[in-house]
Amino acid sequence: SSQACIKCPVGSYNPLTGQSTCSKCFPGSYCDTIGATSGKSCPAGTYNPNEGSVSSQACIKCPVGTHYPFTDGSVYFPGW
């Protein structure tokens, strides 16, 4: 039997060569493809507090009276 490198599963990524593991996508992002080299950021106005998300549907709209102007989308801030 032959051995080969295995692509990272959805929900994880690896940006470097020669690694033995993949990392879960960080909060504020999602990894929706096999073999991802980075996570995709949640759109402005949404957030995602969880790691390892596999779809943009994990990005939640900020509640009324709050906003999230940044692109990492890991938390949201109360409105002023």
TrEMBL record:
It comes from the Eukaryota. Residues 3-42 form the Tyrosine-protein kinase ephrin type A/B receptor-like domain. Gene3D superfamilies: Tumor Necrosis Factor Receptor, subunit A, domain 2. Pfam families: Ephrin_rec_like. SMART domains: Ephrin_rec_like (SM01411). Signal peptide: none annotated. This is Tyrosine-protein kinase ephrin type A/B receptor-like domain-containing protein. It comes from Rotaria magnacalcarata.
